[in-house]
Amino acid sequence: MLRKVIIGILLYSTCPLLSQEATNAEPIEKRAYLKLSSGASSSTNTDVCAPSDFWDPANQGYRSNFGTAPIFEVAFGYDIIPCVTTELSLSYRPHYSYKKFQTPPEAIQTPGALGTKTRRFNLDAMTLIFSLFLNGKGFDALRWETGTSGNYIYPFIAGGLGVSELTIYNFRSTGLPANPEFVTPMISFGSFASENEYTKRYRFTYHAIVGLEYRLLQNWGFELGYRWFSTTKFRGPSFVRDARGNSADVTGSEWTQRLSANEGFANVKYYF
Length: 272
What we know:
The chain has one helix and 14 strands. By secondary structure, it is mostly beta strands.
């Protein structure tokens, strides 16, 4: 009987300690997340290869950029360990715009050269990309607490590989004179455009990222960052049509160039 009383007293005395230990245990940090992101993509100047057997040379060349486009992105990610995250993202960059004013050199031999004009086309990019992140939150020196509520800030870097669907449209030349000096006399060109309204190309894509995340409690994160984005070289339209309705197959002589850009972004992440 005495033994039972002693055991009961010991159990009663240890229950508060067990309860306190369970109450003070740190919650397990959630690893999976969904991310919504937006930003701006500022394209860089890229070289354009325009074979002279079809595309007439110009004093200004063809080198130019695609201007600036917005970025819309959705992603799913998972923290394998605190310092390593994998992520699969789908992003859309609509309505890049290429524009290049050109004047012909004094001597030109390209058949059907158009003379003075402005080359134009638009470009949309849809990109699916897999990324690997290295996170500062996995290192005590790079995990900066912002109070007693468990919020913190940490830096991250990332690299990724994927594929982009590039849609080329509104491919044309404008501002042509009524009777260009280098075109068949008495023939009027109002424009020079691709035969197909849309041309799609699929190209290998890569990016590099650096940024900061603010982790708010268990479920939310907010990021600001910079990204270098680039595709490999892609070809322009293979068929073009002039204002007279004549179609030309330029397969093998298409423009080639790449899309590359400096980008800034902000996003919100929901962890679950």
